[in-house]
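Sequence and structure are no longer studied apart. As an example, we show below a sequence and the C-alpha cells encoding its fold:
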Amino acid sequence: MAGDCYQANGNYIITKMGDNNFKLCHGVALLASDKKPFGHCWIVKGCSILDFSNGKKIATTKKKYYELGKIPVTIIEITPEMRKSVKGTPQPLFEIFG
C-alpha cells in the first residue's frame, strides 16, 4: 500500500514556513507486518512528532515514534532553506535526494 506521507506532511510544513521550530524529516521505517524497509516522512517539533499521513493525525514523542517505526538515529531534517527551494514544485522532496 502506497501512503501519502510526503504529500500530507509536506503540505502541513508549508503552512509553518515562518516557524523554524517545525522540521520536515525523511527516513526509513520498517513495516510492522513484514519488517520490510520503506521511505517515510514526518514532522518534528522539539521532542514531539506529528504525522498526518493516510488521513491520520498522530502526535507523540520522538522516542515512542522512532521505537514503533524502528526508525534509525540517522535522519535527514529538512532546513528552512531547503523548504524554500522546493516550495511550489510538484516533485516530492524525497526525489530530490535520490
